[in-house]
Amino acid sequence: MLCVFCQKGYEGVTYPSEVKLEHIACPLCSETKSEFVIAGRDMRHDLPGEFSIVKCHHCGLMRTNPRPTLESMDYYYPDDYTPYLTTANQSAPRTRNLFWKRVIRPIVRFMLETYSEKAPPLQPGRMLEVGCASGAFMYQMAKQGWVTEGIEPNPKAAQNARDLGYNVITGNLENAPDPEEPYDLVVGWMVIEHLHRPVEALRKLHQWAKPGSWLAISVPNIASVDFRLFKDNWYDLSLPLHTFHYTPQTVEKMLERGGWRLERVIHQRVLTTFIVSLGYMLQERRYNTRLTRALINYYRAPVYIRLLMSPLAHLLSFFGQTGRMTIWATRLDSPVDIVNTQT
User: Fold this and answer.
1) Is 210 inside a domain boundary?
2) What CA–CA distance (Å, rounded) separates 139 from 3?
């Protein structure tokens, strides 16, 4: 249902003519009652609009409401959207230095391992990547023997992946056709928080997967210290691109509703969202210094900087307080209904 701007924080906000908003009930329990959490704007590209996050009274799932319709959302995904630019395949440099290969490189890899794109240890089979961008992860898995396919809504990024030789459908998961054969593994890195109909999408993946198959996804963790500290300046709030905002508890409910059993939650060893959010906060307070710009562009930081910061990332990950989670789940025989019993 389309709506006028009736949510808190919307007075006087101007929206582009091509952007239409819609109100939605909670997709987990169909509850319409909710409490206002926070309002924010597009911090990544500074596009117009202000958007509210509300929390379901019944199950606690947080959602952006109202939100741009699925047809309107392309406006907020410009061609310079970061994942389109940072997921092109790059070959690792080779070295003949045995000390580096046997001693230093394993230590560096351990310190810099974020578990941001960590799939379960399975025998190679058929894999689908939802939101494959330019194909870097498919390339890694293909080298291990996997037959990889992808779905990507951005035409340019999808073509980049096809240029690598992979079968990639351009479009949204919600509208994608059924595959010719079922999958052993489905992955989606930073995807389900973008979906307009996540329950339907997860059920579609359930239908496409073999019995005993696995699902590996990553999502922001709104229960993290990042959100508590930075609020509307939190990088992974990412309004309005993120239509849902998960905690470990609500992502488990969403998975069950979609036909998947949560097996493991890995709190990623990442500080990027924390550091960039600090830059956003300083920028919001008009501290437009060289330090502010360096913080906002931390994802481009050299390796030695990330190595220096890695002990803090490991510590926050140990306590489950980093801003992103990697989730492993297995296919249930059938989805689990979550009924709203409130009167």
Assistant:
1) yes
2) 43
Which residue numbers in the chain have pLDDT < 70? 1-13, 79-108, 110, 338-343
Q: Is residue 61 part of a domain?
A: no
Domain of residue 268: give its range.
80-331
- Contacts (Cβ under 8 Å, ≥6 apart) of 118: 216, 266, 326
Closest Cα partner for 216 from 58, 330, 306?
330
What's the angle, vertex CA 191, arms to CA 185 and CA 196, rounded to 5?
Answer: 115
Cα 106 from chain centre: 28
Q: Is residue 7 part of a domain?
A: no
CB atoms within 10 A of CB 33: 12
**Domains in the chain, number:** 1
List strand residue ranges (DSSP E) for 31-119, in order. 34-41, 50-56, 62-64, 67-68
What pTM was estimated for this model as a whole? 0.86
Alpha-carbon radius of gyration of the chain: 20
For residue 205, give the H/E element and its range: helix 198-208
As a whole number of angstroms, the distance between CA 338 and CA 29 comes to 6
Please report, for the domain that includes residue 326, its CATH number: 3.40.50.150
Res 100: pLDDT: 52
CB 128 within 8 A of CB 183: yes
Distance CA(268)–CA(265), nearest Å, equals 9
DSSP bridge pairs for 148: 127
70 contact partners, CB below 8 Å, separation of at least 6: 172, 174, 196
Q: Is residue 3 part of a domain?
A: no
Bridging pattern class, strands 62-64 and 21-22: unpaired
Residue 116 in tokens: 């941001």
Q: Report the pLDDT value the prediction gives residue 160, as an integer from 0 to 100.
A: 93
What is the per-residue pLDDT across 300-335, written as a single tens digit (0 to 9) for each?
A: 888 888 889 999 999 999 999 999 999 999 999 988
From its phi and psi, is residue 67 left (phi > 0), alpha (psi between -120 and 50) or beta? beta
